[in-house]
């Protein structure tokens, strides 16, 4: 549906967008404020950024969070893609309804419930099998759980839109079903796989509630350190850190989006050329 | 035409099925079990339900005390109600703001749609925690908003927004707005413009056409978006904790305090189970509409 929108509609749209972005813009502004007081502009300064490099606690937490995010998003991409293939390609199998429910529920389940139930599982598992120890392993396992849901939904909708005739053509030419899938369909759904990896990475990097429950004493991820600092009051170095994270993520997402859109256009053009050549 | 992968099928289905069953589903069973235990000063900090008496008889010690406590201590009732009310009105505000936004995007040229969606989704990709913190910079007593209004001479005293219900509402709407816009856009985009033309041809005013055609057809999006905002908002912890005051006791905060403050795991488990029962209806509605939308 495409028709011209009225000014009223457009102004609501721009008001909404302004609401979403204003706090971030102001935060970045504060991060360059030389004065530690929020309501006084003490001139332009990058001192708070310099201080970050000397904060060992923050650096250690950032390192742990990056390791967790890398591991969890990679694990989630594998499991989520498998789940998406199962749900789209296999019309009927035992456990289909269960799988559908389990990939959709984590998207809306309040984190606090997931967090506490998973902690109780891990604690009970330790009693039974003396594994897993709370810390890196438990954080990764719980992050994989909620990231898998996001990956499945993203890849599932892409796979549904993928044209199966190309895969069938490959099989007519003698490729096995698995080979046809890997060489024809996998490249088509790869943008969805890449973007869901990125999404999982940022979601894992950001998670506070679930990590706080399952991390146990000793391990602190970056959001946990940020939360405890913010809870105590304003800290200008958190402004600097937040600006860095928000900008880095923003640049990565926009960049990846641009590259994928370009690759996508090229692939569509090639497919069109291939089809017109034949006729 | 039906290619069957029978042999490899279970290799694809089983890994995610087993993983999610173990780490998402089974935890609820453990939480259920532990909600019948009692707090105890050892590791892990709750009593065993099963124990062997000296005569080697298996003994089952179920305690309903946690649930009784949940029903009698009014903190929980108040927190449940406050959470439901806050989530409900935040969802309505998100809908009022998100519907026109989604509608405007759906009606803009195809070339602009991708960009607009990216702009809406970008905040969702960046840190949730940091965005809530950023919001504090605006609504704090000496924050951006008050400084601006004082400078303009519109107010003489700073507005008190932080640590009030209003701050919690602003926080939830700000954080969850993208979740409302996206499913709404997905249904509005699929809407056939010919239907509206047909309505106009049959003498319908644009307003009537919107009420009779657009609104009913976008209902699945309205429901999916509302559930996507409502359910997590009921259990929100970060927003009431950072922006709300001591009176804005949402159930997520109560659960957190029970767990980290009082170290009473069994009561926390009982709160979580009670909370889950409360959300079972909305989650079922969400699943129904979401699955239907994904499979068509």
Quick overview:
The complex is a heterodimer of chains A (279) and B (296). By secondary structure, chain A is an all-alpha fold.
Number of helices of chain A: 11
What is the CATH C level class of the largest domain in chain A, in words?
Mainly Alpha
The succession of helices and strands of chain A, N to C, reads: HHHHHHHHHHH
Give average pLDDT of chain B, whole number: 87
Chain pair sharing the greatest interface:
A-B, 99 and 103 residues
**Amount of beta strand of chain A:** under 5%
CATH class of chain B, named Mainly Alpha
Integer-rounded radius of gyration of chain B: 25 Å
What does this 3D model show about the protein?
The complex is a heterodimer of chains A (279) and B (296). Chain A has 279 residues and is mostly helical. Chain A has 2 domains: 7-45, no CATH class; 56-278, Orthogonal Bundle (MetI-like fold). Helices cover 80% and strands 0% of the residues of chain A. Chain A has helices spanning 7-31, 47-52, 56-89, 96-108, 111-129, 136-161, 164-172, 177-206, 209-215, 222-231, 236-278. In chain A, helix 1 packs across helix 11 and helix 6 packs antiparallel against helix 9. The model of chain A has no long low-confidence stretch (mean pLDDT 88). Chain B has a single domain (73-294), classed as Orthogonal Bundle (MetI-like fold), CATH 1.10.3720.10. Chain B has 296 residues and is an all-alpha fold. Chain B is globular, with a radius of gyration of 25 Å. In chain B, 73% of the residues lie in helices and 2% in strands. A two-stranded antiparallel sheet of chain B has the order 1-2. The chains are: A mainly alpha (279), B mainly alpha (296).
Topology of this protein?
The complex is a heterodimer of chains A (279) and B (296).
Chain A: H1 7-31, H2 47-52, H3 56-89, H4 96-108, H5 111-129, H6 136-161, H7 164-172, H8 177-206, H9 209-215, H10 222-231, H11 236-278
Chain B: H1 6-34, E1 50-52, E2 58-60, H2 65-72, H3 74-107, H4 110-125, H5 128-139, H6 144-151, H7 165-190, H8 193-201, H9 206-217, H10 219-234, H11 238-242, H12 251-261, H13 265-294
């Amino acid at each position: 549906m495409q028709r011209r929108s009225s000014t009223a509609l457009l102004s609501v749209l721009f008001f909404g967008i302004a609401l979403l972005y204003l706090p971030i813009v102001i935060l970045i502004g504060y991060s360059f404020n030389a004065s530690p007081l929020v309501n006084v502009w003490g001139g332009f300064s990058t001192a708070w950024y310099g201080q970050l490099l000397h904060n060992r606690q923050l650096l250690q937490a950032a390192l742990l969070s990056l390791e967790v995010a890398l591991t969890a998003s990679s694990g989630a991409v594998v499991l989520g893609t498998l789940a998406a293939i199962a749900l789209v390609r296999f019309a009927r199998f035992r456990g289909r309804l269960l799988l559908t429910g389990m990939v959709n529920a984590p998207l809306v389940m309040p984190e606090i419930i997931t967090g506490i139930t998973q902690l109780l599982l891990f604690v009970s598992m330790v009693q039974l099998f003396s594994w897993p120890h709370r810390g890196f392993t438990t954080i990764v396992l719980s992050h994989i759980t909620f990231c898998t849901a996001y990956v499945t939904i993203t890849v599932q909708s892409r796979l549904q839109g993928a044209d199966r005739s190309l895969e069938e053509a490959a099989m007519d030419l003698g490729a096995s079903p698995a080979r046809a899938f890997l060489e024809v369909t996998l490249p088509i759904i790869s943008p969805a796989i890449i973007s869901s990896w990125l999404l999982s990475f940022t979601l894992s990097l950001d998670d506070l509630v679930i990590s706080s429950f399952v991390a146990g004493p000793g391990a602190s991820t970056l959001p946990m350190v940020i939360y405890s600092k913010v809870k105590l009051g304003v800290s200008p170095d958190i402004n600097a850190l937040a600006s860095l994270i928000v900008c880095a993520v923003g640049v990565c997402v926009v960049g990846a989006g641009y590259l994928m859109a370009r690759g996508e256009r090229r692939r569509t053009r090639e497919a069109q050329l291939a089809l017109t050549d034949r006729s | 035409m039906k290619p069957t992968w029978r042999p490899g099928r279970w290799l694809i289905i089983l890994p995610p099925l087993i993983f999610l069953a173990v780490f998402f589903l089974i935890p609820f069973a453990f939480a259920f079990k532990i909600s019948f235990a009692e707090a105890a000063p050892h590791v892990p900090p709750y009593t065993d339900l099963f124990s062997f008496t000296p005569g080697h008889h298996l003994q089952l010690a179920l305690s309903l005390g946690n649930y009784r406590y949940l029903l009698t201590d009014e903190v929980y009732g108040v927190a449940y109600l406050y959470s439901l009310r806050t989530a409900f009105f935040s969802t309505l505000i998100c809908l009022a703001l998100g519907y026109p936004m989604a509608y405007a995007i759906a009606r803009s040229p195809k070339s602009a749609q991708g960009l607009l969606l990216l702009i809406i989704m970008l905040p969702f990709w960046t840190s949730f925690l940091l965005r809530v913190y950023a919001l504090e910079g605006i609504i704090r007593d000496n924050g951006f908003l008050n400084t601006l209004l004082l400078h303009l001479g519109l107010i003489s005293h700073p507005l008190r927004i932080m640590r009030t219900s209003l701050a919690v509402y602003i926080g939830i709407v700000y954080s969850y707005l993208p979740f409302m816009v996206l499913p709404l856009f997905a249904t509005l985009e699929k809407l056939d413009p010919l239907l509206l033309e047909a309505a106009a041809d049959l003498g319908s005013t644009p307003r009537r056409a919107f009420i009779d055609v657009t609104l009913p057809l976008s209902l699945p999006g309205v429901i999916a978006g509302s559930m996507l905002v409502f359910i997590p908002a009921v259990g929100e912890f970060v927003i009431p904790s950072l922006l709300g005051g001591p009176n804005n006791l949402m159930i997520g905060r109560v659960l957190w305090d029970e767990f980290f403050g009082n170290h009473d795991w069994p009561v926390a488990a009982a709160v979580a189970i009670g909370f889950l029962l409360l959300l079972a209806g909305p989650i079922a509605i969400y699943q129904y509409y979401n699955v239907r939308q994904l499979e068509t």
